[in-house]
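[09:14] KT: can someone run the structure on this one? pasting the chain below
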Amino acid sequence: FGAVVAEVARPSDVVILTGGLGSGKTTFVKGFVGAWDPAIEVTSPTFALCHQYPTHPPIAHIDCWRMQDRSELVDVALDELLDEGWVALIEWGERLGGLYDGLSLIIRLEVMGSARRAVVESETRRWESDFEALREACANIGEFQC
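[09:31] RB: done, structure tokens below
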């Protein structure tokens, strides 16, 4: 599903990923980054807070699991990266207290037995035209539901 979202992503997009441990957030990022550059190895930035990937446009992969306060994003310079056209993929984005919700595609990943389900929403018109394409592509991913 990450690769499907990557097909419609644009510079300065923000994708917020939520869901419990093991729900597939990092796997989603692997699919997204792999769609743009399969040679890049994606790992969880839990301890680094942010990994940057030199794709076109570049990707900032942020993990908010250990964040105590959203002011820690200052160290990542996320606003500046977005201004420069980076795409932000934010795991545990609910810990940002809605900071980027109005700009984002929000994907809530849920475990359903051996399958996964994605609940996709957005408060911005930016993603409206892509919802149908995402829904159609998602229907072709086997053990995955949208």
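[09:33] KT: thanks! The two ends are 9 Å apart (CA to CA).
[09:34] RB: yep, looked fine to me
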